[in-house]
Amino acid sequence: MIGATERRVAIGRHIVLIGFALVVLFPFFWIISAAFKTQIDLLMGKVLFEPNVQGFVKVIFDKTSDFVRNFSNSMIIGLVSTFLVLTVATLAAFSLYRLQWPGWVLHSLLGWSVVFHMVPPITLAGAWYTMFRAVGLDNTYTGIILAHTTLHLPMALWMMGVFVRDVPRELVEAAQIDGARIPQTLWYVVLPIVRPGLAATGILTFIFSWNEFPVVLVLSQRQTATVPLGIGKYAQENTIAFTEMAAASTLSILPAFFLLLFAQRFIVRGLTSGAVK
Fold it and tell me: Which parts pass through the membrane (predicted)?
């Protein structure tokens, strides 16, 4: 009797989880299916339709489309800003938790990071535009990368702080007793252990940078526009190209999707190597 009850509970739990998964995944299925429809089929709400790739063709190969440039801009800005964020956040976390700073310095900096992270990015975009224009960085990769690095650094500092804090202090002290300098301790002792944290933080930072819209809307023009701006351009005043917008949205999912597939294996490998060491 107990076994039957537990089985029914497990079946009910799985049904509920599958229901929630369908609710979460339905918008993705709808967008992907819309990308393979014609404009007429989409507006008529057809469920059964003949797949069509004209939306993708227009997005990628049409001479009036800037989506390929938008895609490359997002890759450059996302990768470079993620690298800068991970570098600064890891160094700052190691300094705060392993270099004997007073407690008030640690708490003040982390508290300020939380406050800054709660500030809406659009409130900073105007000031950044004025400042970057004064120094010649408006509509440049450098200006947008610096803005993205500033936006995502507080979150990365908190995440890397958790991973660096959990590194056994005995390992760091043993390396210092053996004569390792601080850069050597960080590179050979701390980084191999916090690789899962680097992967997780890098994924979130890249995805947030990839999806960031209001700051890029203010700081960029056609030459440096990113994917979110490119998708938004398909909604014009008099018409909305739904199929092209859906196709561009589907393509925009691919980098984060493949990054998660790669990072999943990387995180498991990093956890295993850290446990062995």
Answer: 15-36, 75-97, 109-129, 141-164, 185-210, 245-263
Per-residue pLDDT band for 3 (boundaries 50, 70, 90) equals low
What is the radius of gyration, based on Cα positions, of the chain? 23
| Distance spanning both ends of the chain, measured CA to CA | 47
- In degrees rounded to 5, what are phi and psi of residue 52? -140, 135
Residue owning tokens 């199929």: 243
pLDDT digits (tens, 9 = 90+) for 93-128: 988 888 878 888 888 888 888 888 888 888 999 899
Domains and their CATH numbers in the chain = 2-54 (no CATH), 66-233 (1.10.3720.10)
Measured in degrees and rounded to the nearest 5, phi and psi for residue 119 equal -75, 130
Residues in CB range of 197: below 8 A, 6 or more apart: 159, 160, 162, 163, 164
Q: Which residues pair with 42 in a beta bridge?
A: none
CA atoms of 268 and 196, how far apart (whole Å): 8
Which residues, in sequence order, are bridge partners of residue 235?
A: 240
Give the per-residue pLDDT at 157: 92
Give Cβ neighbours of residue 192 (< 8 Å, ≥ 6 apart). 270, 273, 274, 277
Taking the model in full, what pTM does it have? 0.86
How large a percentage of the chain has pLDDT more than 90? 36
